[in-house]
Amino acid sequence: MNSSRRSFIRQSAILGALGALHAAGFVNFPQASARDWNTEAFEADSLDEAINRLTGETVRDGAGIIRFVAPPIAENGAVVPIGVRVEDGEEIVSSIAILCEKNPRPLAAFYDLHPDAVPFIRTRIKMRETAPVVALVRTESGIYRAEHIVKVTKGGCGG
Amino acid sequence: MARPMKVFAALDTEGVTTVRVLVRHDMETGLRKSKKDGSLIPAHFIQNIDVKHGDKTVLSAQWGAAVSKNPSLFCYFKGGAVGEEVTVSWFDNKGESGSKTSLITQAD
Q: Torsion angle of alpha carbons A30, A35, A36, A39, nearest 10°?
């Protein structure tokens, strides 16, 4: 486990500690969980804020190394398959985050990867409307970002 | 409360094990309103899901409520062998959890 990975997850560790305090009744902190869950980043209500809370450092253009496996058009915003793959390289990918710009809470999923994991993740997410889906990838040399626009013809947040 | 869950793990000829996970879960965002009385339906979603190969955690995920209902997850790792165990465990924001172990099979 390298140090850059540690700094990326440090925030969630701190939040985890706050969650424990909340459980003991000391701090009024929503969604307290004993496990690592980055409350601050998941509850951010804008894309930029979520990215700031998640990374806290310079994010570079990753269009050349990040590949999306996702449709250009989704008929049903409630179930949009999103795959994010990092092109084979020499660097180890330690985490992948998936965000959707126009969702009420942009951060959808965050994955910590073991060095034996292939840097490829597929999940289905909800999308409120047509928007860029953003992938953030942490490698040994920094954080990279790429996006892929999905056109949504029926939003995924309605009742 | 037990929620149905499926875990498939298959090793291909390149030495990569594909793990496919399905969990039956509502993944309520907390932003939807009840059709009966218009009140907000409380958030109820999986926050953590971990994939282990033996004792080694190959993937540790944090999910928000934007992950779709009845979530599916695909991940891939190297170093697996046919017959070895893959265990997937999840935990939601209301303290529910589930876990399932499957053996790695040879991919078709």
A: -10
High-pLDDT (> 70) share of chain A, %: 75
Model pTM? Answer: 0.84
Coil, helix or strand for A22? Answer: helix
Q: Does A144 touch chain B (CB under 8 A)?
A: no
Here the ipTM equals: 0.94
> Is B73 in Cβ contact with A121 (below 8 Å)?
yes
Which of A4-18, A102-116, A140-154 shows the lowest mean pLDDT across its residues? A4-18
Structure tokens that stand for A126 in this block: 């909800």
pLDDT digits (tens, 9 = 90+) for A35-87: 789 999 999 999 999 999 999 889 999 999 999 999 999 999 999 999 999 99
Q: How many Å apart are CA A97 and CA A83, to the nearest integer?
A: 11
Torsion angle in degrees (nearest 10) through CA of A83, A87, A90, A93: -20
Phi and psi torsions of A35, nearest 5°:
-90, 165
Beta strands, E only, chain A? 59-61, 66-69, 73-74, 80-86, 93-100, 107-113, 117-125, 131-139, 142-152
Q: What is the pLDDT of residues B44-92, one digit of tens each?
A: 999 999 999 999 999 999 999 999 999 999 999 999 999 999 999 999 9
Q: Is B2 on the interface with A (CB under 8 A)?
A: no
Closest C-alpha among A159, A148, A135 to residue A78: A159
Report yes or no: A61 and A145 within 8 Å, Cβ to Cβ: yes
Please count the CA atoms within 13 angstroms of the CA of A71 that sit on its side-chain side. Answer: 16
Inter-chain CB proximity B58 and A114 less than 8 Å: yes
- Contact of A4 with chain B, judged by CB distance below 8 Å, is answered with no
Q: Given an 8 Å threshold on Cβ–Cβ distance, is B75 in contact with A117?
A: yes
